[in-house]
Amino acid sequence: MRSGVRWLLLPVLLLPVGWLLFANIGVDPRTIPSRVVGKALPTFSLPTLDGTTLTDADLVGRPAVINFWASWCGPCVDEHPVLLDAAQRLGGEVQLVGVVYQDSPERAAAWLRRYGDGGWPDAVDDGSLAIDFGVTGPPETYFVDADGIIRDRVVGPVSTRAMAEGLAAIGVDAS
Amino acid sequence: MRAWVGPLAVAAVLALGGILAVAAITGPRAEPVAQTLAAELRCPDCQALSVAESRTAAANAIRAEISAQLAAGRTADEVRQHFVDRYGSWILLRPASPLAWLLPLLAIAASVGVLGLWLLRRRPAPVTEPAQVDDETRRRLAREAESLDG
Asked: How much is the ipTM here?
């Protein structure tokens, strides 16, 4: 009987350890799961670099890609060609939107002149929109479907493959 | 008379410095609730720093958001939840669930318990009695020993 209790203890001790090990297989430990994926686009109204105003209502009705970037962000330079390529290939099918993160409009505009202005609106954030998206640092890219629901997030520079996966999540075929 | 001017000026400067120091210490401070919340939240773009400790633009934005939320009448719990809803529980520097604190203690207690049980139940090796040798065998062995010696 006592021996039976001892053998019962073994799974009690091993199961939680096994669960901890196997539950996280395939999870990238460097990325933190986003809490806003699956939620509606937050309400916002921000000035843009070209002097207009961008609101959340402007993004509803068409799939959108929202990219948080800054002129001081090195990886933003690496990903910029991917964004330019997506804008050129997809045209009006997707709305690309930049959000200038912790930066001055002057430096952001100078950066665009240097690396290429894709022609999409760039909103200047005072920090509140980054909080609403749970941004941990640029670059971060969010994929929003036509109903205004955030469907995917890419932390770090967006690759061609990540762009295709993100677009697929919002119903856009990038192939 | 002129001999007093120097020490008097030094005394005046020291007194002014003291007054300024006291004013700095007792002057207006950030409200305690906002300060406590800022200390509980992780700065998103720092390494192991709270929002209260960091001076990055992201930390400044979060501090401003905390103050705005509190000014709008939200409770500390609601403000904390506001950030957890956006960043996840990662934003909290201390785990919200008391289980996270209890679990290591429970694991240590269980380990000590299991080890103690194992030590208590470990049986000593059985003591074996020396084999009984009867007189006849003893005499035979003595004879054999003598024959070997001879």
From this structure: 0.76
